[in-house]
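To fix ideas, we now present one chain and its tokenised fold:
***
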Amino acid sequence: MRLSGISKSPTFLVVLLFVLFALLAAQPTAGQCLSDNGKKPAVQPDLEQSRTRLYKGESIFTLQLLDAINTATPNDNLFFSPYSLYNVLLMMYFGARDSTEKLLHTGLNLQWSDSKSTVHEAYDTARKSLLGRFDETSAVGFSSVDKLFFGRQIPVSTCMQQKFGDTIELLDYETQPEEQRMYINRWVSNATRDQIKDLLVPGAITRNTKLAIANAAYFKGTWQTKFKASETKKELFYVNSSRLEFVNMMHVEGTFSHAANEKLGCHILELPYSTGAEEDIERRAKRGNKVSMFVFLPPAEPNALSKLLGRLAAETDILHEVVNDGISRKVDVKLPKFSIEKQVEMKQVLERLGMGKLFENTANFEEFTDGREPIGFDEVLQKSKIEVNEEGSEAASATVAFSFRSSRPADPALFHCNHPFVFIIYDYGTRSVLFNGVYRQPE
């Protein structure tokens, strides 16, 4: 699939990949395509309502995932894509049956529907609508590419061919595992415009590999209000009460949406990416192609970041409130210029989320082959990269120069990011968090 809608100026990019290696698992039995265990919805659901509920489930999953990854690596910078992982797990859900299907149904917050076919329809239309929004003239570009790399000898079910035909590719794992590993690496490199290379190390693909589910995502955008390169200066960043580091701090003054959220105990700033059109925020949102970074800035006090992350974990349904909560005002913004590159073993993270049984030999993924070939999953890998500069990107560290509960200060308000903060890249069209991160320190 061709990546479209990406600005040619090298301002900002994010790339990541999830690969799930399928090995031998329990012997399944035959069944029907997306059968919903024989159930059919009593009333045909409204597609738009189903998509809204799917988005809501993804936003809840986002904060659960953030909490699990932060618990696993509490002292590191974090960067990952909940959107991409959620979509890969949805594909696993479509290939699952019985207790494995129920596990994913709960873990992905799909309780709004007992029909797998309804979930698939919402997922498929959401995926197509997102990718169809951008063209070569767009100032903001996002591409997400799914792939089901089956072994040539695997009898792929008719169901999978019908539902995922454009994502299926057959590889010769049995006689050429090393060549297929390099082939997947080339696919990754192409899909991410050469940003992720040699992802799979020698030995990652073996003769026993049955299926690799992959997703590669690429994002690039320019700020609607750009930072001034001439004003970027070395400034102190307060990693904690006893450690200071110098960072390249960017600066801009402009009109932004700003909020003080009492539930989270932090200030929140929206930094929108340019759509390439001179329109107001409301019209861009209605057009469905608005993408913004939200920076969550806790108070400049000990353990403030930990408290913020704890509140986010407890308020898992708060993101849709956050993106509609700000007021437009003049703000003086300072944000670190930075890059992060991370690789995360998601298997351990999913175990923390209560989905460890997906990797046991009793897991049932018979939908992939109609029970004619046993398939199970052994590993999940994510690799991601982000660059932030004055022209565009994702973002930022933030510090509040005014009291959290103070009355509205005189304009411009100060939003200076000089201590650890949380950030998300949010897509208004799908109401999804595309990327999520925590900036604790310069790397």
Observations:
- The longest strand covers residues 243-261.
- The mean pLDDT is 81.
- Residues 47-72 form the longest helix (26 residues).
